[in-house]
Amino acid sequence: MRILYWIAAIGGPGICFQAYGRLHHTVTSRVAPNKVRVSSRELYSILGFGESTNSSGRGVQYSGNVGNPYGSNIIEVPGAHANQYKYVVRFEGPEQGEAWTIVIWNKIGPDGTMGGWYGKACKIFALEAGQIRYFAFDEDSQGGWAAAPGSPVPVDDNGGYASTWGEFDFGSATNLGWSGFDVSAIAAQNAGLEVQGMKVCEVLTHICSVIGPAASVVYNAYTSAVADIGGIGGKLAPGPVRLAVIIDYDITRG
User: Fewest CB within a 10 Å sphere: which of 39, 136, 151, 222?
Assistant: First the structure.
């Protein structure tokens, strides 16, 4: 029932979202007084975001918007206001047990190099059992999050977050405004650490990416065995994105 409530909240008038599975220029402008971005014929709030940063590079080395000040392209928002933002991720905690720690990072770190997942998280928060929290992402943001029970999130020998990841690319300027996402166990597997369950679904398109505990279930997601294969996960045409993330996912949670 939680997901149905969120769908109604996010949808707004005249839109029906349904929950239920890498990565592909939107003409935008900012209007400072009322903090609203105009994109196509729709309005999206940018209240709370910092200034956008210029993009640079190509391919894997592409650097999009990391916010100025750094990390201000990622903000927590109240559920009642989440529908006002273009790119929103809804995190749902475990059904029971201890709180989980979630870290969210930009692909490009504060030093301008690729490696925001090496302890450079923009957001770190606890997600209690049954708790739901919403985060909004600014245009042309790329990065990921990792989740693990307790605290802190485990890291590999080089200090990189090494639990199950979710990866995102929202409104990529280099890919004509397309977005994408996936779930990945690569970091945890390469480090020989536990693979936690995670399910990420885009509620507008029904596309999901899923990994079960210990990689017992893998659907449209990355493991170390397919690390070199591109195109796994969700590919989304330009427009709003609504990702619903279930932490500590297993098949009994649907």
Answer: 151
Residue with the larger pLDDT of the pair 14 and 32:
32
Closest CA to 171 of 96, 85, 105: 85
Give the list of residues 6+ apart from residue 46 with CB closer than 8 angstroms, or none: 30, 35, 36, 37, 85, 138
Query: Which residues are registered as beta bridge partners of 63?
Result: 56
Domains of the chain and any CATH numbers: 2-253 (2.60.110)
pLDDT, one tens digit per residue, over 87-122 is: 999 999 999 999 999 999 999 999 999 999 999 999
Tokens, residue 20: 């239920």
